[in-house]
Design brief:
Length: about 110
């Protein structure tokens, strides 16, 4: 997840985050992109209200604006950047991936429902 820099638009933050994470990828965004999903992450499942579909972040309570975007090209991870690896998955296979950040499956499902 990318934090924005003071005075940076959401569009500029999304483009910056992409270039800091993957290379060889193209992305076209509208002038004012809107999130597809807003997800809350909580440090404990006990703190989640009944009926709330939320993620888990053992460090803190946080809110993520999630954008479902299409990439062009053959993306690869930027050496020394935020990402360790770039992979494509069939969304039906996500639950079987052992090394995803807690809450990722719920977040992807939410974005795909949009």
């Amino acid at each position: 997840m990318a934090a924005s820099v003071a005075g940076e638009t959401l569009r500029a933050a999304l483009l910056r985050h992409l270039t800091e994470t993957v290379e060889e990828a193209g992305l076209e965004l509208p002038p004012d992109p809107q999130p597809d999903v807003v997800v809350q992450y909580f440090p404990s499942p006990a703190s989640v209200e009944s009926g709330l579909d939320a993620g888990y972040d053992p460090r803190q309570h946080s809110v993520a604006l999630v954008y479902a975007v299409s990439l062009t090209g053959e993306p690869t991870v930027v050496a020394g950047g935020e990402g360790l690896e770039f992979r494509w998955w069939d969304p039906r296979e996500l639950e079987s991936v052992a090394d995803l950040w807690p809450g990722t499956v719920q977040t992807v499902r939410g974005a795909l429902r949009s």
